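#help-structures

NK: newbie question. if I give both the sequence and a SMILES, will the prediction place the ligand too? trying with S-adenosylmethionine
OV: yes, paste both and it writes out the complex. here, I ran yours:
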Amino acid sequence: MSNVFNLKKYFMTPLIKLIIKHPKLMESKIFLKAMLIFPEKISKSYDLKLKHSDIDYQAALSYAFGLIKRKPQKILDLCTGTGFAAFMALKYFQDSIITGADQSSKMLEMAKGKIEASDSKRINFDFGNAAKLSYEDEAFDLIITSNAPIYLKEAVRVLSRGGDIIVTYSFGGAAFINAESDIMSLLEKNGLHLVNLKNVG
Ligand SMILES: C[S@@+](CC[C@H](N)C(=O)[O-])C[C@H]1O[C@@H](n2cnc3c(N)ncnc32)[C@H](O)[C@@H]1O
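OV: that's the protein plus ligand as structure tokens.
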């Protein structure tokens, strides 16, 4: 399984640069197929990899949570995987309802398995494609997406007016910082305003 994670190390930065410039690539058949296959394969070892990684996976999310000024009532963690960001949000935003969505049933199985231990009724997980969400318009006031492809059009549709979107990656930091103008134009095209772009940890 470490091969899958090594792939990330060597190919992620160029891939990120390419996708920021050409977000339509995320709609290509090969990308969509990869996104259906890989998560299913890595679901069981995913949490352990995060735990034993030399990367601080929490750093960027913790930093971003601290920037949120308006207390969110409903939070969506898009492409939640095993619920890593969703459970972090559960701890940080003590009054919010958290929904995690993912299209990998095996990843979701792992996420759902952790609900009981969290002893919380504020968190739930749904099966769903981030490119075609079943939620109503403006259903959430904070959307989080971590280490995943981001389908901005749908995220914006389900985000309330004045709501926030947090996008974090635990790899490729410099690639994002160097692509600030591309990121800004991508956000503007989707009616979003860049508040902060930072390489943390
Ligand atoms: C690398 S994992 C990241 C999981 C989690 N957000 C984290 O930070 O640990 C990427 C996740 O994105 C999900 N994903 C990719 N494309 C998706 C899509 N179109 N709809 C829903 N989930 C998707 C995958 O199934 C996988 O669980």
